[in-house]
Amino acid sequence: MRGNEADERADREATADGPGDDGPDGESVSFSRRGVRAGFLTTIPIAFGVAGYGIAFGVLADQVGLSAAEAALMSATVIAGASQIVAVELWAEPIPVATILLATAAINLRYSLMGAALQPWFGQLSAKQAYGSLFLMADENWALTMRDLRSGSGRGAFLLGSGIAVWTFWVGSTVLGTLAGGAIGDPASYGIDFVLAAVFVALAVELWEGAATLVPWGVALGTALVTAHLVPGQWYILVGGFAAAAIEVARHD
Amino acid sequence: MTEGALSLDPLVVGVILAMALVTALTKVGGLWLLSRIEVSERAEAGLSVLPGAIVIAILGPELADGGPAEWGAAGVVLLVTWRTGSILAALCAGIAAVVLLRGLL
User: Fold this and answer.
1) Range of the domain at A97
2) Residue A248 distance to chain B (closest CA, Å)
3) What digits encode the pLDDT tens for the residues B55-80?
4) Domain shared by A78 and A156, yes or no
5) Of A52, A87, A150, A239, which has fewest CB within 10 angstroms of its CB?
6) CB contact under 8 A, B46 and A237
7) What is the ipTM for the molecules in this complex?
Protein backbone atom coordinates (compact mmCIF):
# COMPACT_ATOMS: atom_id res chain seq x y z
CA MET A 1 0.00 0.00 0.00
CA ARG A 2 2.78 2.40 0.98
CA GLY A 3 4.80 1.58 -2.12
CA ASN A 4 1.76 1.91 -4.30
CA GLU A 5 1.03 5.28 -2.75
CA ALA A 6 4.55 6.51 -3.43
CA ASP A 7 4.32 5.26 -7.01
CA GLU A 8 1.10 7.09 -7.64
CA ARG A 9 2.47 10.23 -6.09
CA ALA A 10 5.58 10.05 -8.28
CA ASP A 11 3.25 9.43 -11.19
CA ARG A 12 1.28 12.55 -10.41
CA GLU A 13 4.40 14.64 -10.02
CA ALA A 14 5.62 13.39 -13.36
CA THR A 15 2.25 14.34 -14.78
CA ALA A 16 2.48 17.83 -13.34
CA ASP A 17 5.93 18.34 -14.87
CA GLY A 18 5.02 16.61 -18.12
CA PRO A 19 5.68 18.27 -21.45
CA GLY A 20 1.97 18.28 -22.23
CA ASP A 21 1.12 20.48 -19.29
CA ASP A 22 1.51 23.71 -21.24
CA GLY A 23 -0.63 22.44 -24.08
CA PRO A 24 -0.12 19.87 -26.76
CA ASP A 25 2.19 21.94 -28.98
CA GLY A 26 4.41 19.75 -31.07
CA GLU A 27 3.22 16.60 -29.35
CA SER A 28 2.15 13.88 -31.75
CA VAL A 29 -0.96 11.85 -31.07
CA SER A 30 -1.17 8.23 -32.15
CA PHE A 31 -4.10 5.82 -32.30
CA SER A 32 -2.85 2.42 -31.21
CA ARG A 33 -3.92 -0.82 -29.59
CA ARG A 34 -1.63 0.14 -26.69
CA GLY A 35 -3.73 3.27 -26.14
CA VAL A 36 -6.97 1.28 -26.15
CA ARG A 37 -5.49 -1.10 -23.57
CA ALA A 38 -4.22 1.71 -21.33
CA GLY A 39 -7.63 3.41 -21.44
CA PHE A 40 -9.47 0.19 -20.68
CA LEU A 41 -7.27 -0.83 -17.72
CA THR A 42 -7.11 2.66 -16.19
CA THR A 43 -10.89 2.90 -16.27
CA ILE A 44 -11.76 -0.45 -14.61
CA PRO A 45 -11.72 0.95 -11.03
CA ILE A 46 -13.96 3.86 -12.09
CA ALA A 47 -16.16 1.46 -14.02
CA PHE A 48 -17.19 -0.14 -10.72
CA GLY A 49 -18.50 3.26 -9.72
CA VAL A 50 -20.30 3.51 -13.07
CA ALA A 51 -21.81 0.09 -12.38
CA GLY A 52 -23.23 1.28 -9.08
CA TYR A 53 -24.96 4.04 -10.98
CA GLY A 54 -26.08 1.62 -13.72
CA ILE A 55 -27.75 -0.59 -11.15
CA ALA A 56 -29.60 2.47 -9.85
CA PHE A 57 -30.70 3.32 -13.41
CA GLY A 58 -31.83 -0.27 -14.04
CA VAL A 59 -33.92 -0.27 -10.87
CA LEU A 60 -35.57 3.04 -11.88
CA ALA A 61 -36.19 1.79 -15.45
CA ASP A 62 -37.80 -1.37 -14.08
CA GLN A 63 -40.05 0.70 -11.81
CA VAL A 64 -41.49 2.72 -14.73
CA GLY A 65 -42.17 -0.45 -16.73
CA LEU A 66 -39.24 -0.69 -19.13
CA SER A 67 -38.17 -4.27 -19.84
CA ALA A 68 -34.57 -5.38 -19.25
CA ALA A 69 -34.06 -5.45 -23.03
CA GLU A 70 -35.37 -1.89 -23.43
CA ALA A 71 -33.29 -0.53 -20.56
CA ALA A 72 -30.19 -2.33 -21.91
CA LEU A 73 -30.84 -0.90 -25.40
CA MET A 74 -31.00 2.60 -23.93
CA SER A 75 -27.76 2.14 -21.99
CA ALA A 76 -26.03 0.60 -25.02
CA THR A 77 -26.99 3.33 -27.51
CA VAL A 78 -27.42 6.52 -25.44
CA ILE A 79 -24.52 5.98 -22.99
CA ALA A 80 -25.24 9.11 -20.95
CA GLY A 81 -26.30 8.32 -17.40
CA ALA A 82 -27.80 11.59 -16.18
CA SER A 83 -30.01 12.02 -19.27
CA GLN A 84 -31.15 8.40 -19.10
CA ILE A 85 -32.16 8.74 -15.47
CA VAL A 86 -34.02 11.99 -16.18
CA ALA A 87 -35.76 10.37 -19.20
CA VAL A 88 -36.91 7.49 -17.04
CA GLU A 89 -38.15 9.95 -14.43
CA LEU A 90 -40.20 11.69 -17.17
CA TRP A 91 -41.49 8.36 -18.53
CA ALA A 92 -45.31 8.13 -18.45
CA GLU A 93 -48.26 6.74 -20.41
CA PRO A 94 -48.48 8.05 -23.13
CA ILE A 95 -44.73 8.68 -23.47
CA PRO A 96 -43.99 12.46 -23.56
CA VAL A 97 -41.63 12.07 -26.55
CA ALA A 98 -40.89 15.77 -27.18
CA THR A 99 -40.18 16.52 -23.52
CA ILE A 100 -37.89 13.52 -23.20
CA LEU A 101 -35.90 14.42 -26.33
CA LEU A 102 -35.58 18.08 -25.34
CA ALA A 103 -34.39 17.12 -21.86
CA THR A 104 -31.91 14.66 -23.38
CA ALA A 105 -30.50 17.36 -25.68
CA ALA A 106 -30.26 19.94 -22.88
CA ILE A 107 -28.56 17.59 -20.45
CA ASN A 108 -26.13 16.26 -23.03
CA LEU A 109 -25.22 19.58 -24.65
CA ARG A 110 -22.28 19.64 -22.23
CA TYR A 111 -20.76 16.79 -24.25
CA SER A 112 -20.21 19.30 -27.08
CA LEU A 113 -18.00 21.32 -24.74
CA MET A 114 -16.25 18.20 -23.52
CA GLY A 115 -15.67 16.99 -27.08
CA ALA A 116 -14.41 20.44 -28.03
CA ALA A 117 -11.91 20.28 -25.16
CA LEU A 118 -10.41 17.19 -26.83
CA GLN A 119 -9.80 19.06 -30.09
CA PRO A 120 -6.05 19.78 -29.63
CA TRP A 121 -5.44 16.02 -29.63
CA PHE A 122 -8.38 14.63 -31.60
CA GLY A 123 -7.76 17.14 -34.38
CA GLN A 124 -4.77 14.96 -35.28
CA LEU A 125 -6.83 11.78 -35.62
CA SER A 126 -8.85 10.61 -38.61
CA ALA A 127 -12.56 11.48 -38.62
CA LYS A 128 -13.48 7.82 -38.13
CA GLN A 129 -11.13 7.45 -35.13
CA ALA A 130 -12.21 10.72 -33.51
CA TYR A 131 -15.99 10.49 -34.01
CA GLY A 132 -16.07 6.75 -33.35
CA SER A 133 -14.38 7.33 -29.98
CA LEU A 134 -16.67 10.26 -29.15
CA PHE A 135 -19.73 8.00 -29.46
CA LEU A 136 -18.49 6.17 -26.34
CA MET A 137 -17.73 9.38 -24.44
CA ALA A 138 -19.25 9.64 -20.96
CA ASP A 139 -18.38 11.93 -18.04
CA GLU A 140 -16.04 9.49 -16.35
CA ASN A 141 -13.99 8.30 -19.34
CA TRP A 142 -13.81 11.83 -20.76
CA ALA A 143 -12.25 13.12 -17.52
CA LEU A 144 -9.76 10.23 -17.39
CA THR A 145 -8.89 10.81 -21.06
CA MET A 146 -8.28 14.52 -20.51
CA ARG A 147 -5.96 13.66 -17.63
CA ASP A 148 -4.06 11.16 -19.77
CA LEU A 149 -3.71 13.42 -22.81
CA ARG A 150 -2.72 16.46 -20.75
CA SER A 151 0.13 14.42 -19.26
CA GLY A 152 1.59 14.27 -22.77
CA SER A 153 0.99 10.55 -23.37
CA GLY A 154 -0.15 11.13 -26.97
CA ARG A 155 -2.48 8.12 -26.63
CA GLY A 156 -5.33 9.12 -28.93
CA ALA A 157 -7.07 5.75 -28.50
CA PHE A 158 -7.36 6.18 -24.72
CA LEU A 159 -10.96 7.43 -24.95
CA LEU A 160 -11.96 4.41 -27.02
CA GLY A 161 -10.46 1.91 -24.54
CA SER A 162 -11.84 3.85 -21.62
CA GLY A 163 -15.24 4.02 -23.34
CA ILE A 164 -15.30 0.28 -23.94
CA ALA A 165 -14.75 -0.29 -20.20
CA VAL A 166 -17.50 2.16 -19.25
CA TRP A 167 -19.89 0.77 -21.89
CA THR A 168 -19.41 -2.84 -20.76
CA PHE A 169 -20.00 -2.06 -17.08
CA TRP A 170 -22.83 0.39 -17.86
CA VAL A 171 -24.85 -2.04 -19.99
CA GLY A 172 -24.12 -5.02 -17.72
CA SER A 173 -25.10 -3.20 -14.55
CA THR A 174 -28.27 -1.84 -16.21
CA VAL A 175 -29.43 -5.40 -16.89
CA LEU A 176 -28.49 -6.39 -13.34
CA GLY A 177 -30.51 -3.46 -11.97
CA THR A 178 -33.66 -4.23 -13.96
CA LEU A 179 -33.52 -7.91 -13.03
CA ALA A 180 -32.85 -7.20 -9.36
CA GLY A 181 -35.69 -4.67 -9.59
CA GLY A 182 -37.95 -4.69 -6.58
CA ALA A 183 -35.59 -6.92 -4.61
CA ILE A 184 -33.14 -4.04 -4.06
CA GLY A 185 -35.64 -1.62 -2.60
CA ASP A 186 -34.39 1.92 -2.05
CA PRO A 187 -30.94 2.49 -3.72
CA ALA A 188 -30.33 5.42 -1.36
CA SER A 189 -30.01 3.06 1.61
CA TYR A 190 -26.88 1.60 0.01
CA GLY A 191 -25.41 4.99 -0.87
CA ILE A 192 -25.64 4.18 -4.60
CA ASP A 193 -27.16 7.59 -5.32
CA PHE A 194 -23.95 9.18 -3.97
CA VAL A 195 -21.67 7.43 -6.49
CA LEU A 196 -21.81 10.15 -9.15
CA ALA A 197 -21.06 12.95 -6.69
CA ALA A 198 -18.17 10.92 -5.25
CA VAL A 199 -16.71 10.31 -8.72
CA PHE A 200 -16.80 14.03 -9.45
CA VAL A 201 -15.21 15.03 -6.14
CA ALA A 202 -12.35 12.62 -6.87
CA LEU A 203 -11.98 13.97 -10.41
CA ALA A 204 -11.98 17.57 -9.17
CA VAL A 205 -9.09 16.74 -6.84
CA GLU A 206 -7.17 15.31 -9.78
CA LEU A 207 -7.97 18.21 -12.13
CA TRP A 208 -6.91 20.82 -9.55
CA GLU A 209 -3.91 22.73 -10.85
CA GLY A 210 -3.25 25.09 -7.97
CA ALA A 211 -3.98 28.79 -7.68
CA ALA A 212 -4.50 29.26 -11.45
CA THR A 213 -7.59 27.09 -11.18
CA LEU A 214 -9.15 29.17 -8.42
CA VAL A 215 -10.78 31.93 -10.50
CA PRO A 216 -12.34 29.79 -13.27
CA TRP A 217 -13.57 27.22 -10.75
CA GLY A 218 -15.00 29.91 -8.49
CA VAL A 219 -16.86 31.41 -11.46
CA ALA A 220 -18.10 27.96 -12.54
CA LEU A 221 -19.32 27.19 -9.02
CA GLY A 222 -21.04 30.55 -8.50
CA THR A 223 -22.80 30.69 -11.87
CA ALA A 224 -23.82 27.02 -11.68
CA LEU A 225 -25.36 27.48 -8.22
CA VAL A 226 -27.28 30.62 -9.25
CA THR A 227 -28.44 29.06 -12.54
CA ALA A 228 -29.52 25.81 -10.87
CA HIS A 229 -31.58 27.92 -8.47
CA LEU A 230 -33.25 30.03 -11.18
CA VAL A 231 -33.53 27.81 -14.28
CA PRO A 232 -35.13 24.35 -14.34
CA GLY A 233 -33.26 21.45 -15.94
CA GLN A 234 -29.52 21.00 -16.22
CA TRP A 235 -28.61 24.26 -18.00
CA TYR A 236 -26.46 25.18 -15.01
CA ILE A 237 -23.79 22.74 -16.23
CA LEU A 238 -23.50 24.57 -19.56
CA VAL A 239 -23.74 28.03 -17.97
CA GLY A 240 -21.04 27.19 -15.41
CA GLY A 241 -18.69 25.76 -18.02
CA PHE A 242 -19.20 28.64 -20.48
CA ALA A 243 -18.84 31.31 -17.78
CA ALA A 244 -15.52 29.87 -16.60
CA ALA A 245 -14.22 29.64 -20.18
CA ALA A 246 -15.37 33.22 -20.89
CA ILE A 247 -13.57 34.55 -17.80
CA GLU A 248 -10.41 32.73 -18.83
CA VAL A 249 -10.61 34.17 -22.36
CA ALA A 250 -11.11 37.67 -20.90
CA ARG A 251 -8.17 37.24 -18.49
CA HIS A 252 -5.79 35.91 -21.12
CA ASP A 253 -3.07 38.44 -21.96
CA MET B 1 -40.52 -12.90 -16.20
CA THR B 2 -38.11 -13.89 -18.99
CA GLU B 3 -40.67 -13.01 -21.64
CA GLY B 4 -41.26 -9.62 -20.00
CA ALA B 5 -37.55 -8.95 -19.63
CA LEU B 6 -36.97 -9.50 -23.35
CA SER B 7 -40.00 -7.59 -24.65
CA LEU B 8 -39.37 -4.66 -27.00
CA ASP B 9 -42.21 -2.20 -27.62
CA PRO B 10 -41.75 -0.52 -31.05
CA LEU B 11 -42.67 2.95 -29.74
CA VAL B 12 -40.30 2.60 -26.77
CA VAL B 13 -37.49 1.44 -29.08
CA GLY B 14 -38.18 4.44 -31.34
CA VAL B 15 -37.94 6.91 -28.45
CA ILE B 16 -34.74 5.26 -27.22
CA LEU B 17 -33.12 5.43 -30.67
CA ALA B 18 -34.15 9.09 -31.03
CA MET B 19 -32.52 9.78 -27.64
CA ALA B 20 -29.40 7.98 -28.89
CA LEU B 21 -29.30 10.11 -32.04
CA VAL B 22 -29.72 13.39 -30.12
CA THR B 23 -27.00 12.34 -27.68
CA ALA B 24 -24.58 11.25 -30.43
CA LEU B 25 -25.04 14.65 -32.12
CA THR B 26 -24.14 16.47 -28.90
CA LYS B 27 -21.09 14.24 -28.45
CA VAL B 28 -19.61 14.82 -31.90
CA GLY B 29 -20.95 18.37 -32.43
CA GLY B 30 -18.33 20.26 -30.43
CA LEU B 31 -15.34 18.67 -32.13
CA TRP B 32 -16.98 18.99 -35.56
CA LEU B 33 -17.53 22.72 -35.04
CA LEU B 34 -13.99 23.30 -33.76
CA SER B 35 -12.37 21.50 -36.69
CA ARG B 36 -14.06 24.00 -39.02
CA ILE B 37 -13.05 27.22 -37.31
CA GLU B 38 -9.61 28.65 -36.53
CA VAL B 39 -8.94 28.62 -32.78
CA SER B 40 -6.87 31.43 -31.26
CA GLU B 41 -4.53 30.99 -28.30
CA ARG B 42 -7.00 33.03 -26.29
CA ALA B 43 -9.84 30.63 -27.10
CA GLU B 44 -7.58 27.68 -26.27
CA ALA B 45 -6.96 29.16 -22.82
CA GLY B 46 -10.73 29.21 -22.36
CA LEU B 47 -11.07 25.61 -23.53
CA SER B 48 -8.29 24.48 -21.21
CA VAL B 49 -10.29 25.41 -18.10
CA LEU B 50 -13.44 23.64 -19.34
CA PRO B 51 -12.70 20.18 -17.88
CA GLY B 52 -12.39 21.34 -14.28
CA ALA B 53 -15.09 24.00 -14.67
CA ILE B 54 -17.67 21.50 -15.93
CA VAL B 55 -16.82 19.07 -13.13
CA ILE B 56 -17.32 21.87 -10.59
CA ALA B 57 -20.53 23.06 -12.30
CA ILE B 58 -22.02 19.54 -12.10
CA LEU B 59 -20.82 18.97 -8.55
CA GLY B 60 -21.72 22.32 -6.91
CA PRO B 61 -25.52 22.23 -7.24
CA GLU B 62 -25.57 18.46 -6.61
CA LEU B 63 -23.79 18.89 -3.28
CA ALA B 64 -25.84 22.00 -2.45
CA ASP B 65 -28.96 19.83 -2.87
CA GLY B 66 -27.58 17.33 -0.38
CA GLY B 67 -27.25 17.71 3.35
CA PRO B 68 -24.60 17.31 6.07
CA ALA B 69 -24.28 13.56 5.32
CA GLU B 70 -23.42 14.19 1.65
CA TRP B 71 -21.09 17.10 2.51
CA GLY B 72 -19.24 15.02 5.08
CA ALA B 73 -18.93 12.09 2.67
CA ALA B 74 -17.70 14.44 -0.09
CA GLY B 75 -15.03 15.63 2.36
CA VAL B 76 -14.02 12.01 2.95
CA VAL B 77 -13.73 11.41 -0.83
CA LEU B 78 -11.64 14.58 -1.20
CA LEU B 79 -9.31 13.58 1.61
CA VAL B 80 -8.86 9.96 0.46
CA THR B 81 -8.27 10.98 -3.18
CA TRP B 82 -5.77 13.63 -2.12
CA ARG B 83 -3.89 11.31 0.26
CA THR B 84 -3.89 8.07 -1.79
CA GLY B 85 -4.58 9.09 -5.41
CA SER B 86 -6.81 5.99 -5.64
CA ILE B 87 -10.30 6.72 -6.95
CA LEU B 88 -11.55 3.24 -6.03
CA ALA B 89 -10.47 3.68 -2.41
CA ALA B 90 -12.06 7.12 -2.40
CA LEU B 91 -15.37 5.81 -3.79
CA CYS B 92 -15.55 2.98 -1.25
CA ALA B 93 -14.73 5.34 1.62
CA GLY B 94 -17.24 7.92 0.36
CA ILE B 95 -20.10 5.45 0.02
CA ALA B 96 -19.37 3.92 3.42
CA ALA B 97 -19.27 7.44 4.87
CA VAL B 98 -22.56 8.54 3.30
CA VAL B 99 -24.40 5.42 4.52
CA LEU B 100 -22.92 5.84 8.01
CA LEU B 101 -23.63 9.57 8.21
CA ARG B 102 -27.22 9.16 6.93
CA GLY B 103 -27.75 6.64 9.71
CA LEU B 104 -26.29 8.95 12.36
CA LEU B 105 -27.65 12.35 11.30
Assistant:
1) 29-207
2) 5
3) 899 899 989 999 999 999 999 999 99
4) yes
5) A239
6) no
7) 0.77
